[in-house]
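Help needed: design a sequence for this.
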């Protein structure tokens, strides 16, 4: 089972490698777009889970991210999504949060 950060960030030593049993890497931009549409009520969580072929572990991380924004004001949710996007892009590019453990810690997972 792969956690969300396994699916979002390629391995530094082998960018093409995915965890065992994982069908594909989740790109930052498609993931952020899905979160935005989920927040706006245009897609369901089940659609996001199916689109990204998430297993139970990955879905649990998605739930953790969703729970972070519950109760936030519109502006706070917007700021959170911008911050999440920035962190994922820096990780993907290998500039910061260069290990999955660092990325999980930064995201609070």
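Sure. Designed sequence:
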């Amino acid at each position: 089972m792969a956690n969300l950060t396994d699916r979002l960030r390629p391995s530094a030593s082998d960018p093409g490698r995915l965890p065992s049993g994982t069908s594909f890497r989740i790109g930052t931009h498609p993931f952020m777009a899905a979160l935005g549409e989920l927040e706006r009520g245009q897609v369901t969580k089940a659609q996001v889970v199916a689109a990204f072929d998430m297993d139970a572990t990955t879905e649990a991380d998605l739930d953790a991210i969703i729970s972070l924004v519950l109760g936030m004001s519109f502006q706070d949710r917007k700021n959170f999504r911008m911050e999440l996007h920035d962190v994922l892009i820096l990780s993907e590019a290998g500039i910061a949060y260069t290990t999955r453990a660092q990325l999980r810690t930064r995201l609070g997972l």
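The CA atoms of residues 8 and 26 lie 5 Å apart.
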